[in-house]
Amino acid sequence: MEMEQKGGKLTKKELNQMWRRWGFFHLSSMSYEKLQGHNWAYLMSPLGEKYYKDNPEAYRSLLERHSLFYNTEPQTGSLIVGIAASLEEQIGMGEDVPEEMVTSVKATLMGPLAGIGDAIMQGIVVPILLSIGMGLASGGSAIGPVFYMITYGIAGVLISLFAFKNGYKLGLTAVDSLVGENSKRLRDAFNLLGVMVVGGLAASYVTLETKINIPYGDTTQKLQEILDSNFPKLLPLLMVLLAWWLLSSKKMTATKVILILTGISAVGVVIGIF
Q1: Residue 209 CB neighbours (<10 A)
Q2: Nearest to 63 by CA among 37, 44, 36, 87
Q3: How confident is the model at residue 1 (pLDDT cuts 50, 70, 90)?
Q4: Are 195 and 119 in contact (CB under 8 A)?
Q5: For residues 115 and 113, what is the distance between their CA atoms, to the nearest angstrom?
Q6: What are the distances in angstroms from CA 17 to CA 82, 132, 250, 261?
Q7: Which of 168, 172, 243, 271 is 20 to 30 A from residue 237's alpha carbon, by CA?
Q8: Three-state secondary structure along the chain?
Q9: What is the rounded CA–CA span in Å between residue 8 and residue 270?
Q10: What is the pTM of this model?
């Protein structure tokens, strides 16, 4: 028997409204109990107005199942919003989709998407844009930070919109690609790419040389020349590894690490090492 179709599919305007409510207001209301969960009820309101305007109980049920704890990376996390919109659309049109499936999909995907999203945004997009901005600002120009703020804003919006539209288009088929071993392989691939990007940036922008002279027969020779002939950029590499060790093993904040590196550099300059 053919299921009754109510209300028709979500329009482009309604979908864009739902995406905007997530993309720009996902952290506008949060608590330790639900984190981003509050925004889900807000973004689902256009869908509720379309399908449950004359059914208060169904409308309340929609808002309740989208008011649970939720937390993921916001830009790539738009993919889950698109998938949930697709499933809720089917439920609203009277198709045989269990309401529990939507909450299960959200709970299943928010962890893997958080890992993949952090690897993409913090490991690739931010370092690349920062490296360009630092290059522009190296001569004291204000264009560098302005460039970063504008391009990060544009990149974040485009990634979020792309993820939302593809999530809505793919629906449940996207789940198979994002859970289990597939999720781990994707996260590992993006993490590896991010490490390569950060390594390249460190080699380009971290500079450290020593002024120490060592005895060489009847004369002296600069230690830096010996290091460069055997292991170029060894001192910058050691400083990067020290920063990584303090962050990963000692669990220090970035501010403390910056202060420690500044202190080492200042002392080194004063006593004539650097």
Answers
A1: 14
A2: 44
A3: very low
A4: no
A5: 5
A6: 12, 33, 44, 47
A7: 271
A8: CCCCCCCCCCCHHHHHHHHHHHHHHCCCCCCCCCECHHHHHHHCHHHHHHHCCCCHHHHHHHHHHCCCCECCCCCCCHHHHHHHHHHHHHHHCCCCCCHHHHHHHHHHHHHHHHHHHHHHHHHHHHHHHHHHHHHHHCCCCCHHHHHHHHHHHHHHHHHHHHHHHHHHHHHHHHHHHHCHHHHHHHHHHHHHHHHHHHHHHHHHHCCCCCCCEEEECCEEEEHHHHHHHHCCCHHHHHHHHHHHHHHHCCCCCHHHHHHHHHHHHHHHHHCCCC
A9: 74
A10: 0.71
For residue 232 the two structure tokens come to 């170029």
Residues in the chain: 274
User: Whose structure tokens read 């420690």?
Assistant: 260
Query: Residue 4: pLDDT above 50?
Result: no
Q: Centre a 10 Å sphere on the Cβ of residue 194 and count the other Cβ atoms it contains.
A: 21
Exposure of 171 in the CB half-sphere (CA atoms within 13 A)? 8
Alpha-carbon torsion (260, 211, 131, 234), positive or negative: negative
Is residue 225 within 8 Å of residue 213, measured between CB atoms? no
189 in the Ramachandran plot: left (φ > 0), alpha (ψ -120 to 50) or beta? alpha
User: Shortest CA distance to 170 belongs to which of 103, 99, 109?
Assistant: 109
pLDDT digits (tens, 9 = 90+) for 21-54: 999 998 888 787 788 888 899 999 999 999 998 8
